[in-house]
Structures are given as C-alpha cells and as structure tokens.
Write a structure and sequence with these properties.
The protein is built from 8 helices and 12 strands. The chain is α/β, with parallel strands linked by helices. The chain binds NADPH dihydro-nicotinamide-adenine-dinucleotide phosphate (NDP) and the ligand O=C(O)C1=N[C@H](C(=O)O)C[C@H](O)C1.
Length: 265
C-alpha cells in the first residue's frame, strides 16, 4: 500500500488529490498538509471533501510522517519549501506546480540527485500523447508552416501561458531543432513585423470554471491542422498524479516526467 501525503491539501487540486488517493487501488491517503497558519488544522478532511478518507485530518506541512510519497500542486514558493521537506525526509515526490522559473528547475535537478521526483506540467494521458503528436505535425508540413498555441483556463489561474502550453511549445521546438526561448512570442502587440515562420506564438484566455484547454495550430497555405485537448475534470490530473506516485515506488533518485510514467518516450 502506497501512503500518499498531499501538500496544499485545501487547494482545488489538493482536494481532488485527497479524493483520488482515497479511491485509487493500492494507495491510501496518509497525510493532508496545509500551512501552519491554516484554520483547517485538525479538521477532518472528510468535512471538506466528503469522498476523502475519514481517518485523516489536515495537519501542518512541516511535520510529514507516515507517508511513502509526497505530492505538491501549490505555488512556486510552496513547492520550494515542500521540496526541501521531501529531501530532508528522503521521500519521493510528485510535483505538478506550474509557473516555475529556471532557478526552480535547477533546484529540482539538484534535489533529484537525492530523491526520485516526477515533475510534469500536465498529468493527463491526453496531453502527454499530444506532446508526441505535435512533434509529428511540426516536422511533416515542411518549413512553410505557422505554429500557434492557444490555452484557456479558469479565472483563478495565476501563471500564463500555462505550464502545459509551454510544454507543448518546447516539444515542438525540440522537434524543429529550435531554441524555445528564441522562437516564443508571448505578446504580438510588441512585434512590429509580420509573423516569421521560425516562431511559436502563444495566446491565453482566462474565464469562469474552465478546467484546462489547449490547442496547437499548424497552418500552411491551403490547410490547417488543429490539435486540441480539453480536460473536463481535475480528477484527471489527480488520478494521473497518483499513478505517478505509484510508479515512483522503488525508483532510484532522478528527475522523471509523466511521459516516463506512461512509457511514451
Ligand atoms: N500538472 C498538472 O497536471 C496540473 C497543475 N496544476 C497546477 O497546480 C497548482 C495549484 O493549482 P490549484 O489547485 O488550482 O490552485 P489553488 O490556488 O486552488 O491551490 C493552491 C494551494 O497551494 C497552497 N499554497 C500556496 N502558496 C503556498 C505556500 N507558499 N506554501 C504552502 N502552500 C501554499 C494554497 O494554500 P492556502 O489556501 O493556504 O493559500 C492552496 O492549498 C498550480 O500551479 C497549477 O497550475 C493544476 C492542475 C493540473
Ligand atoms: O492551473 C490549472 O488549473 C492547470 N494548470 C496546469 C498548467 O498550467 O498547464 C495544467 C492544467 O491545464 C490545469
């Protein structure tokens, strides 16, 4: 039995993870961690998500105990603290937090010398298949091709473009042999020229309760291919993260992603 500890347990993803850890076979919820200042400390998780394990109450994120793996879907500052806790306690970790900086990625690389980590900007099967499909599309049209990525999320989302949109762009750039940072265009209003073909343009929508939608456009003269993924429930990501947590059992230290978990490489 894999005992799961969830950081940010009162967040949108945290609540979905409490439920996913409870219902998924071969796992059980071992800890539901919130900040030490949280008013939820000591309250049974079942009172906040009725599908979550009745035996667990929210506890302080600084005292992880009786768990085999930790999961973090919070914000970059939270992820940094939680990563240190995982290393200090020699526990494997699954990370879904997006909006990470280059320095954060260096922290992950360093921590992965000591513990096994899965980091993915999207834990759905569909998006991870899409990361492969866009590489085929990007390379089969030839050079006369315009590539754009559109993403839409709920009104609460902070980072933009989404981690998934960036992962799609990076996958395309890798297939084309481009440096992603050089070809990414985030704000066309700042570009005083027509679109060049060595470009990946990003556009973003925020509104309502959209769980997460991504489209990669491949447009050439006379035709256009649109590859779209739509998530309709956060349980998709939560169940994917639990799958990653199970996969991590007995893995050596290292930095893995969801394509490793799904054997898509
Ligand atoms: N990889 C993937 O498949 C997915 C990734 N995500 C990513 O997961 C993250 C969380 O999303 P979501 O659940 O919607 O966000 P929420 O805002 O609903 O939840 C954020 C959680 O993080 C906690 N938190 C924030 N800052 C800190 C901190 N400094 N220390 C400790 N805890 C902190 C919050 O606690 P408090 O309430 O106390 O502020 C809250 O519990 C985002 O980065 C999002 O992009 C989301 C879905 C899928
Ligand atoms: O914040 C979200 O909600 C999501 N974030 C991830 C991202 O930034 O790509 C994954 C998913 O799309 C939902």
């Amino acid at each position: 039995m894999n005992r799961i500890g969830v950081f940010g347990a009162n967040g949108r993803m945290g609540l979905a993870l409490l439920e996913a850890a409870t219902i998924k076979e071969q796992t059980q919820l071992g800890g539901a961690y919130v900040r030490s200042s949280s008013s939820l400390l000591g309250i049974n998780v079942n009172q906040v998500n009725s599908a979550a394990d009745k035996a667990i109450s929210f506890s302080d994120e600084n005292n992880v105990a009786d768990v085999d793996v930790l999961i973090d879907f919070t914000l970059p500052a939270g992820m940094r603290n939680h990563l240190k806790t995982a290393v200090d306690n020699k526990l494997p970790m699954v990370i879904g937090t997006t909006g990470l900086t280059t320095d954060d990625m260096a922290l992950l690389q360093n921590a992965a010398k000591h513990i096994p980590i899965v980091f993915a900007r999207n834990y759905s099967v569909g998006v991870n298949v899409l990361l492969n499909l866009v590489q085929t599309a990007a390379t089969k049209f030839g050079d006369d091709l315009d590539i754009e990525i559109f993403e839409a999320h709920h009104r609460h989302k902070i980072d933009a473009p989404s981690g998934t949109a960036l992962a799609i762009g990076e996958s395309i750039a890798q297939a084309k042999g481009w440096d992603h940072d050089e070809v990414a265009v985030y704000d066309r209003s700042q570009v005083e020229s027509a679109k060049s073909q060595n470009e990946i343009g990003y556009s973003v929508l925020r509104g309502g309760d959209i769980v997460g939608e991504h489209t990669a456009y491949f447009a050439t003269m006379g035709e256009r291919l649109e590859l779209t993924h739509k998530a309709s429930s956060r349980m998709t990501f939560a169940l994917g993260a639990i799958r990653a947590a199970q996969w991590l059992q007995n893995k050596p230290a290292g930095l893995y992603d969801m394509q490793d978990v799904l054997d898509l490489k």
